[in-house]
Amino acid sequence: MVKVRAARPAEAEDLTGLVMRSKAHWGYDAAFLAACAPDLRIRADDVTARRVVVAENGRGEVVGVASLEGTAPRAELGLLFVEPSAVGQGVGRVLYRDVLRRAVELGVRRLVIDSDPHATGFYRAMGAVAVAEPPAPAAEAGGTALVRFEAAPVPLADWARAWTGGGRAVHLGNVGEFNAQFADATSDREQRPAHHYACLAAFYSPYPAALVLPRPVPRGWTELVCRQLGWTGVEVYDGLLDADPGLADAVRARPALAAQLTGAGLPLVPWGRTKAFGRLTGRPWRDGELRYESKSAAHGLFGRILAGGGHPGIVLPRQWRVDGRWAAARMLAARTRAGEGTVLKSEHGVGGSGTTVLTPARVRAAGGARAVLRRLPRGPLLVEEYVGGAPSGDDDGPRDLTYDGFVDEAGHAHEVGGAVMEVADGCYRGATVGPGVVPAWAGKSLTAFGAAVGRELADSGYRGWFDVDFVADGAGRLAPTETNLRLTGPSIAFMVAARLDALRGAGHLVRIADRVELGARLPEAQLDELCVALARGCAELGAVFVPAIPTGAFDPAPWLGVLVAARSRAVLDAAEALVRAEALAVGAMFDTA
User: What is the rounded CA–CA span in Å between residue 211 and residue 533?
Assistant: First the structure.
């Protein structure tokens, strides 16, 4: 375990020796090293003035040194050197992240790094960005041009600090337990795979202290995610259930574990609120606090907000509740004859389950309205008008957007932000968050209406995460379609973006891909190897790869949830394409034809 501490003036000579050995590691000759020596020397009075720190290994040996020099808002990474025998052991990563953390505390917002050419790969992997400014004078490099990088240190986002009180949290992956509250006759078979969203339990906050999971988790996955997100000391309690639902009660059935988790003084963050979670945490259950998880109740809420005015960029699609199959068929047939698209919805669903989008052509191709209805699960349905068209006629523009926020225990609604979702035939497939993702024409309307929903939820007694999903119409307006009173895929992308910004510097775009198809069911060791290779390949592109818990990787049709992050759309797209291609290609090695 590498630990960082302040350097001592008496260590100056020894630290200079470490720096010179580290420089020589790259194969420079004696003449070059002699030319570098004056600039690389650490003097006793430099230790405090240059904010020098050292890294110690588990045996107390100094294996690295770094300095943070200058004053806010611009500072420099003056030194970052690792003992040659410790190269490749993560020492440089620990030192660099410590420098960024201290820069934030000092109010530094621009960190300049003049890198030896041999270290450029390291700084790119750490999230620094190469810039075109002239580097430090080449004399120190003996004629070898240094490469200038910059990072933008930022504190953890305000909303992320408010979400967990500024500290770490315990994550309870109670997805199945949450979904079971809303099972009804219209919940189709896709509702059951939606329990796989427990694969996101690692990311319910930016930096967990413990994960409580229904299924066993591969050890290699844990190690990779902790390395990618700079987590340390994360405890994992997995394999607590043979079948969903009931994770909170499974914890309560283990008194020692329940006492450990609830008595640590850390917030417990679930996927969503349940009565069982209330029993575990001693939190009173508020009757009806999840009522707006219902699509018809949410529609009514939207209507009441719009009736008050002040949201000209929002339009509410009409919605009707029909209790009988034949009534639904007659309404669908009439809308089809009128050339109108229709959306059939159940009251509840996850990831688009229970939602069917029907164009007139699709209804006719299916053999008519009655034929369509015969194929759907029995039970009450909502019939909603289909909102068509792309904003401003831009077929490439985003059509499905979402607003995320949360209501804290004091009843204050916090804005997290907007995201663009990927939705295919009514089913959620992923989302992208980050600077500039939500187009300018949608941002103001989305934020204002999402905030209004948050205030109403707070007044209704709801406490926790929520989102509001929207569809864009052809006139550049947004149509709200539902609220989700729980964590979601986009919320996970926000959590990872907040962590990466604090860990690597500001400006990350994060995309969560709900389902990346694997070319074959892999043994656990081979799946670990694939994820490590994907992390390496994305890093070479300048991106970060983070796999979700592989809950679906061993299904008959195996898949993996993933997150990729980058600072540009082009790199983000390239990283996603790489991940999808490599994941699908793993089947080729098992092809015996």
Answer: 25
